[in-house]
Design brief:
283 residues; 10 helices; alpha/beta; 8-stranded mixed β-sheet
Length: 283
């Protein structure tokens, strides 16, 4: 199932490989602490590979969008229809200002979020340190949304799912024996000038990367299986997810870069899909 949201680093194309990394259906609870567009969850759910699920993100505005899709999809569709269409490019910054002024709850918020997601540059979601969405208008020839049937199909897959506003360590601490966890954090940057961790006002730097790896090991020792994605860099393979600590590098796909402003620089980059657990503590 293709997600509704366009999302930088979204995993719709890699979802089958990520499912293969788990190797079997989830017998416990499925956790996804970096929710994004929910591409991996939607694939796993559609394939019958997960039952109970807890999906979370540190960005409460994003979580609220998924709640609206889950709980009020028809009202959400009506609210999107009320937003600019033919003159969308001229009115983009009016909608962006209304989004930033709030309130950032409910159907009206979710409709603006989704509209900006489709009308903004490259579908990028970025906030400044004040928590204000600051992506400029996109260059598309037309404003396009998924069909109403697509919205309703995603809504159906989200029914019964627990959607939580939380940091990754808060959620991963709950993972236990038989549970599955998929982590798609903001990636370690390819270079000092290529960093993109601004999907919410809180930074995600090397300290957070190390904490994530530690939480993955702790969950694995409790009997959970954790799969993680990141850039295929030596620091990722050898320091964050080293085989000596129980991590396995199960795939190293090459994926198209979608954030760069210049089309000529949007080549393919290598990623790594790693997994760990369940592990047993040694005496």
């Amino acid at each position: 199932m293709k997600p509704i949201l366009k999302w930088a680093g979204g995993k719709a194309r890699l979802a089958p490989q990520i499912a293969d990394a788990f190797g079997a259906p989830c017998e416990g609870t499925y956790y996804e602490p970096f929710l994004g567009s929910a591409a991996v969850f939607l694939h796993l759910k559609e394939q019958g590979l997960v039952g109970r699920a807890v999906l979370s993100d540190a960005n409460p505005k994003l979580v609220e969008v998924h709640r609206a899709v889950r709980d009020q999809v028809d009202k959400l569709l009506a609210a999107i229809d009320e937003l600019p269409s033919d003159d969308w490019r001229e009115r983009y910054y009016d909608v962006r200002d209304a989004y930033n002024e709030g309130p950032q709850r409910g159907v009206a918020h979710a409709a603006r979020f989704l509209w900006l997601n489709r009308a903004g540059f490259n579908g990028l979601y970025r906030e400044n340190r004040s928590g204000k969405f600051n992506v400029p208008v996109g260059r598309y020839s037309a404003l396009k949304f998924p069909s109403a049937d697509h919205f309703r199909a995603v809504s159906k897959l989200l029914r019964g799912v627990e959607l939580v506003e939380a940091t990754f360590d808060q959620v991963m601490g709950e993972a236990d024996e038989g549970d599955h966890v998929y982590c798609d954090p903001p990636y370690v940057p390819l270079s000092e000038t290529a960093s993109f961790t601004g999907y919410c006002k809180s930074p995600f730097d090397i300290a957070e990367q190390k904490q994530l790896a530690l939480m993955a090991r702790k969950a694995a020792f409790k009997g959970a299986q954790v799969v993680l994605s990141n850039h295929d860099l030596p620091v990722v393979r050898n320091e964050l997810y080293p085989s000596a600590s129980g991590f396995q590098h199960v795939a190293r796909p090459r994926v198209a870069r979608a954030i760069s402003r210049a089309a000529r620089s949007r080549g393919k980059v290598s990623e790594v899909i790693a997994k760990i657990g369940p592990l047993r503590k040694t005496a």
